[in-house]
Amino acid sequence: MSKLIDYAEVQKHTSRESCWVILYGQVWDVTNFLPNHPGGANIILKLAGKDATEEYDPIHPPGTLEENLPKSACIGPINPTTLPQPVKAAKDVGPEPDTQVEVPLAAMLNLDDIEAAATKKMSKKGWAYYYSAADDLVSKHFNNTVYRQILLRPRVFVNCKDCDLSTSFLGHKLDIPIFVSPAAMARLAHPDGEWGIAQACKKFHTMQMISNNASMTPEQIVKDAGPGQVFGWQLYVQTERKKSEDMLARVNKLDAIKFICLTLDAPVPGKREDDERGKFIVEDTSQAIKDAGGKELKGGGGIGQSLFFGTDPTLTWTETLPWLKKHTNKPIILKGLQCHEDAYIAAQHTPQVQGIILSNHGGRAADTAPPAVHTLLEIRKYCPEVFGKLDVVVDGGIKRGTDVVKALALGAKAVGIGRGALFGLGAGGIEGVERVLEILRDETATAARLLGVAKVTELGPLHINTRAVERDVYDGPANLPGIGGAMKGLWVQAKL
Amino acid sequence: MSKLIDYAEVQKHTSRESCWVILYGQVWDVTNFLPNHPGGANIILKLAGKDATEEYDPIHPPGTLEENLPKSACIGPINPTTLPQPVKAAKDVGPEPDTQVEVPLAAMLNLDDIEAAATKKMSKKGWAYYYSAADDLVSKHFNNTVYRQILLRPRVFVNCKDCDLSTSFLGHKLDIPIFVSPAAMARLAHPDGEWGIAQACKKFHTMQMISNNASMTPEQIVKDAGPGQVFGWQLYVQTERKKSEDMLARVNKLDAIKFICLTLDAPVPGKREDDERGKFIVEDTSQAIKDAGGKELKGGGGIGQSLFFGTDPTLTWTETLPWLKKHTNKPIILKGLQCHEDAYIAAQHTPQVQGIILSNHGGRAADTAPPAVHTLLEIRKYCPEVFGKLDVVVDGGIKRGTDVVKALALGAKAVGIGRGALFGLGAGGIEGVERVLEILRDETATAARLLGVAKVTELGPLHINTRAVERDVYDGPANLPGIGGAMKGLWVQAKL
Amino acid sequence: MSKLIDYAEVQKHTSRESCWVILYGQVWDVTNFLPNHPGGANIILKLAGKDATEEYDPIHPPGTLEENLPKSACIGPINPTTLPQPVKAAKDVGPEPDTQVEVPLAAMLNLDDIEAAATKKMSKKGWAYYYSAADDLVSKHFNNTVYRQILLRPRVFVNCKDCDLSTSFLGHKLDIPIFVSPAAMARLAHPDGEWGIAQACKKFHTMQMISNNASMTPEQIVKDAGPGQVFGWQLYVQTERKKSEDMLARVNKLDAIKFICLTLDAPVPGKREDDERGKFIVEDTSQAIKDAGGKELKGGGGIGQSLFFGTDPTLTWTETLPWLKKHTNKPIILKGLQCHEDAYIAAQHTPQVQGIILSNHGGRAADTAPPAVHTLLEIRKYCPEVFGKLDVVVDGGIKRGTDVVKALALGAKAVGIGRGALFGLGAGGIEGVERVLEILRDETATAARLLGVAKVTELGPLHINTRAVERDVYDGPANLPGIGGAMKGLWVQAKL
Amino acid sequence: MSKLIDYAEVQKHTSRESCWVILYGQVWDVTNFLPNHPGGANIILKLAGKDATEEYDPIHPPGTLEENLPKSACIGPINPTTLPQPVKAAKDVGPEPDTQVEVPLAAMLNLDDIEAAATKKMSKKGWAYYYSAADDLVSKHFNNTVYRQILLRPRVFVNCKDCDLSTSFLGHKLDIPIFVSPAAMARLAHPDGEWGIAQACKKFHTMQMISNNASMTPEQIVKDAGPGQVFGWQLYVQTERKKSEDMLARVNKLDAIKFICLTLDAPVPGKREDDERGKFIVEDTSQAIKDAGGKELKGGGGIGQSLFFGTDPTLTWTETLPWLKKHTNKPIILKGLQCHEDAYIAAQHTPQVQGIILSNHGGRAADTAPPAVHTLLEIRKYCPEVFGKLDVVVDGGIKRGTDVVKALALGAKAVGIGRGALFGLGAGGIEGVERVLEILRDETATAARLLGVAKVTELGPLHINTRAVERDVYDGPANLPGIGGAMKGLWVQAKL
């Protein structure tokens, strides 16, 4: 066992020239790694000379250190008796922790209750990362309120004793039409992280898409998969393609992962101010806006931007899909389509592409981007044949079972939840995620039965009144009178 | 007289194996009844070993004990000197009681004043049961605000000295076009209960529909009926059909009951969170979420769900109406139609079916279901002949006389109030219900006179401007261009 | 001089059998007058045995006592030393008086400032009478917000050095296109009352319509009229026609009164709850809801309802106009038209009828009645020829000069203010009314110049964008497909 | 050096007959100048006998004294020892200064943060001048919210690694499509004033239009211009044309000024109440509403109205443009067009007129005037050829990069900010303006990349969904059925 290192010694290494941090009781020299850190050097320099474990742990899957640093970078164990008191986490942003008696999960009746409970229990930084969305949160809120604009059309005198909630995606049966969308950094909510979400999905026999930025490895997440449990793996293609190829090679080996979900709606990071403000809330303001080297940090920041580091913004239909074909045989689904034109193009790429997720990234990419309901209605209007060629699912804004049946009635095969699952995890770990799925399942069943369908797959546009939404749906470019009919809306890139 | 039983003895019987409760001073052994309780066993187990009278009384009509339990189940009278102090009812949910000076009924100028007064006087549990609606209360609020979207078109220079407010329903004359819809559990508001509502209706010579879940027996409710007073009796068909058949047999004998109101809009219970939360608000939180047997209670609950116990969700046009014909000669009206297609089908079932109530169950079933005004406009648009074949009435959201005249102008023969009558009862017993009817009658007369009609039966679509509503009314399934005109909207189930 | 009467003696006469009140220091026996009081007997009985001067004075024009009571009813002077301390007026309803330093009129920049200042200075009862409107104040607020829905279309490069604001009505020139609509009970705001409003109108050379329920006599109001000053006199036809005929005879003699304004929009009183609540706010609640005879007072009340006493609700085109012709040679204008059909009919009655006021009575009659802007747009849509036959003016909701130019652009020759003038009076007497007219004049001039017109009479529909309003304007009866085009909207009573 | 003058002596000269003020330590006799002061005599009389430097300095460019007063008017230096303590500025209107720790510029993430910071640091008078807009601020707010009504239509699988943000105006290249609109009185925010704004524009290589009412001379503002830096100079034509001609002669000599921006949207001042209220907030209320001569000041006032003094409201297409041609060879752009008709006429005046700014003067002229987005859509609808003939830019309401791309997608070549630059100056001087430009630049780049364009000049109506706005855009005069199609909207003045 190596000699213990005093904290005073560590504190001498706080510059770009020599930068040490303490992680899990070990002192690491990360000087050479600084320029390669996906989140940028500054984020490390702010922690130089300190114990970075609390900041590092929930956002890095196991193995990250070992993969990225040579063994020699580990200098040795810290002398714990020399460490100062742990700094309190009061520098985080978000709501104040609540000291009231804890509400039991069973008494949380809806997803707002769940979010409120998670907000009380989570760190401010984690809350800010989950809660945040682009700019003024217009799309985030619209994702939800657009469902309130749609009215149900219940039928009477229909036997609705039972309602079959099962659906399928890419041929895999799901017991409920609700799945977990790729959502990063689950361990910010709870130590069970993405593995915990997987346990809840197993119980309800539904699908989970694993975020490219999960806080656990894919192997960890799927290790306790049940029979027939369905996972997808989300890919953000890296500028350094080799990294993506290595990752695909790992994923190819995991049978539980049935498809690759290529995310397209965030080639550059949106501006998530709630998340970014965290950077400026520190104990010593005078120091806060400078990096360890003394250079002032300007604008941006937060967990969201760090995660985008290395993402390739140059993807195209003609280059990326063929490259992907070379590196995996798993089917591809495309995530983040927001207009019918792209859905139309995607349908030209079967059989490699087998599904699409209509999504505006939970309102976290371009603010004022349309909700998935608009894109569903655009596809119905201009190119309904897409529904026959691809499995179409949606995410964003789902809070109620009535939202679920409305999306299904418009042609979605299932709906994804992101924040819902993460806040469930924050509210109660695995049981919290289960409670979220249980609430949505029960509400969906009630809504479907009141609509008079025996199976959710029977739901169609006859069951809903979408007039209030339809009049806002894209109707072709403004004032271009020469273009009419279906062609008016269809704007397929010439270079396709 | 049997020997007095000590409270200490009763408290020993609190399990599924032996469960005693005190009711009206008598100790009952309800162990064998537990699995048969319409509200589920848990609700009884929570009261095991205690005096349950306060909880039991307002929601069970007289005779319930006798009908459901053998004489032997009555063990004997409790020794009152051994009883603890009555537990205070502070565990209920809802607004805090107000200690201000009581406002006289005459100073309550509108239905909001009435509701505010009732809210102050009622138990929190009763308030929560009445106030609650499904999910986010979208339909409950829309039921009311949709009337604000309609503008009146007053005419001038018309003799409006008098205005005849009378209307008819199934051939029975009503002095005012406002009736009381079936609304359960009136004794939660006031000991006079549904009988009290009947007295007020007698005074105004209008119609009352008796809830299947009334807190009094039909015989009690109609016993003081005036000459020509009109009652309907609401039927929730029970899975155990024999129960419904027995009940119909009783009702058939009551001449004051002129028709059967078959309720169709709630084959499964909606999710009424204000009501359900009551279950989790108890003095001892650690115990609250378990039943007496120690099993945790999860989700749901409340009075609303209990009442649905036993309701048959398998009703159909082809099976249920013929069955009903066998068990009653009274005419049938159907309650809870929410789209023109079902109104169209109902009109095919004359003469057995003679009327329909357009209703979304006060927003208590499917949230975001359309208000009755939408359904009226749908019928006008797609199948106006329905108005000639059936007596159409509506309920939900009526707060003002202007609301009443708008519904009549669109073709309704009368409008029903549910919460309005119950809150009137809560605010002042019989006189409170009378005040509610008086307010609505006077407001209706004022509105009709300002519109320039001598009789409310003259009201028609020329008297109102519905453009702001019409553009939201169902216009056929979204983006199905092949279907047009009247056919576009008419979606009659193939299996009819 | 008669013997002084002790207060103790007066207090003995508080019943229907013997009812005395003190007015202006004299004791009157009003027992025989009780059944004839326009406001009902109860309102007097509540003041029986007391000094009623403070309640009586601001709402009765001089001469009222002498006209209605025989000399013998005056018993003699009260002995002032026996009177109790004057009761403080704290029983009134409305906002609390403000004790801040008074704001100078010049610092009140808009009509909201004026209303706020008047609210602070006026009695609560007076405020409630002015502020109140029917039911939920929907029409009152819509009267104003509908103007915000219309956009201006300013033109540039137009010489707008001067702008001629003058207009005409029935051939009489007005220097500004803003007049004072008939508004009752001006002395509730200020002792100068309607005479004070006349002085302000003289200064701005504009028109005033005298309310049938003015708190001063027509003779008093017009006595200081300037040269060419224009008055109209509002007529509510009384059931006791003789009263109206006598009044017309008086008015016929006054040259300053150029026309009769026959009010049609309030044949029965609307329900003005702010006004009515005043009745129930008294010092001794137990007594408040009974009249002096011990009978409980139920519902309604307030100044508004009292004023309607005696109004004839049987007026018709065919009976009333010929009767009126017999009793006056002055031209007639009709107030309160709210749909194009009635405007169309009015235009058939030239030359007796020469103008119309589109008005919903300030939102005080039928709540959810359309604002005058809707009626203007209806007329433009269905029968624009009306503008050529009649002088059309509007009132209701005017708060800004931009509102004025919008009404003019749609065809109104001028706009009336009601509450604006009354609150001006309350805020600062004559100078307050002048300030109101000055603010609106200056704002109107600014708006007209920015639109690029040299005279307000040049304003037309090209200067405004009304799309947001037009889509809500009446489009014919809902779903009556057989009726189309102009006929769709035109619903002329068969009995015309 | 002249003899020092005692403050007591100065204080004797406070009337129209003899009026002295102290400016920059010198005593001036301004008696003869009183009738010529652009802001009116009153504003000087209020400061008569006092040190006026604090009021005078930020709103008068250097040289103003020398240009307007003869040398003899300078009486001599004040004796500083006789001056009273400087009066504190607490009489200003606006938010209370904040005493919290200052937020660093980098932590201001958006333009609202910037405005909040400036509001805390600026004088209340300066804040009120910047913040204020006409009447009820309807147009000011609509300018911003109309952008929220437009949805983006992001495309996926497009290489968006880089995005070229450059655009051009009148042939001059700008690195970002965001420029500074003419905005008066920059030194109210910061001593660096308009020169400071110029430094920030230099850094981002973008355009600045210099306000006619700048608080610095054009020579001062452009003196440190970078190579290729583009300025425009705003002209309010003065009634006293000679003044405008002299000013044009000065401007003609400045090469950095590339064009003249003739402002047309404010021939008369709007009513900016926040600004005007400042006049009435003084220490001694009794005196506040009188001028020094004892005459009461009525209505209006504020900085805004003062600045309009002398502006010529008689400009016309036929007179003003030829006059302008005689006095400058620089190209002309017209500012303040608000309807397509005027844009159409402007396009007839090439080549003298080369560009237009669609603007409602930041909502400061006619309230309820349309936002520039409406005018863009009007031009697209009725006369899209205008975009080919003129460089069209917009200002008003820009707060986000998404707003910028939406305006560009509709045909604008760039967008202007006014308050944004001024509040940036208030928040942090030159660096504050830079931070504003940096925020908008980064947000614009993010939005453009997420839309999938490689250059902002590729943006077009296909990238946005404007349906929610289009239905409110002018559709021709209301109910004039005879006029249709493009002609319906086109209302070109006959006198053109």
UniProtKB/TrEMBL annotation, chains A, B, C, D:
Q: Which EC number(s) does UniProt give? A: 1.1.2.3
Q: Which residues form the FMN hydroxy acid dehydrogenase domain?
A: 103-469
Annotated family: Belongs to the cytochrome b5 family. In the N-terminal section; belongs to the cytochrome b5 family.
Which SMART domains does the protein's record reference? Cyt-b5 (SM01117)
Native species: Capronia coronata CBS 617.96
Localization? Mitochondrion intermembrane space
Q: Which cofactor does it need?
A: heme b; FMN
Q: Where is the Cytochrome b5 heme-binding domain positioned along the sequence? A: 2-79
Which molecular function term from Gene Ontology is one that the record holds?
heme binding
Cellular component, GO annotation: mitochondrial intermembrane space
Oligomeric form and interacting partners = Homotetramer.
Q: Does the keyword Transferase apply?
A: no
- Keywords carried by this UniProt record: Flavoprotein, FMN, Heme, Iron, Metal-binding, Mitochondrion, Oxidoreductase
Q: What is its main location?
A: mitochondrion
Q: Give the reaction(s) catalysed.
A: (S)-lactate + 2 Fe(III)-[cytochrome c] = 2 Fe(II)-[cytochrome c] + pyruvate + 2 H(+)
What name appears for this protein in its UniProt entry?
L-lactate dehydrogenase (cytochrome)
